[in-house]
Fold:
Amino acid sequence: MPKRPLGACNLVWVDPGTTSGLLVCSINPRWLKGQGSPSWEGLGNAILSRSAYQVGRHPRRFDTDKGTSAQFGINGPDEYLLPVLAEQPLIETNARLTSILSGDNGGDYGRGDLSMVDAGEIVQVRQIAGLLDNYPTAALGIEDFTLRIANMDRETLSPARLRLAIETEEILHGEGRVPFLQNPDAMGMATDVRLKRANLYFPGMPHATDAARHALVFFRRCRADEQLRAQAFPRHFNDWEDE
Structure:
């Protein structure tokens, strides 16, 4: 029996780092099923909505109406906790977190060393968790990380730490989604020209644009691989049939 139509397939892709790129994208499941043009333009036409953000060191959001990006203002400690979605708070309570990050917690707890890199990653994990709470049925993808140079600097290893932290937060306190990992080399397929053809290029937001590269490659993989498609979007493609 065919399933009741469930609407678009949603994907949240994270490109982690000291500045993390985030893409929230909805796509017509029929394109993933193989209907419509497989071209980059065809993929772009199948995308029903898109939202791009950067959090961390260079926080920005993309205005789809104007086609431009804008920087989040940073004027004080609370601004580091600015939610990804401006009109929907993602930090449930930030007073305690702010006091911990600023070192003013009343002296009730022992304190170790908290670097600015560590603090920024903690805030990112909380923001990304809040974003994921808004898309409980979306597939989750994260760029995989492989150390290619002999550099143990904390910022160099930030992507690996963030990936594990986001994964742990989602499994223990979120919907329990295990993220799909994609090698950074996959981004080479989604060039700037192809992103523009698919209407998923975000000028001024390189990290969000990299998240979009991964998302487009992942959508194409899902179209070509029935098993991956069903694994990513089980509500749509487990025993799914055309009407």
User: Anything to note?
Assistant: The chain has one domain: 9-106+114-237. Residues 9-106+114-237 form a domain with the Nucleotidyltransferase; domain 5 fold (CATH 3.30.420.10).
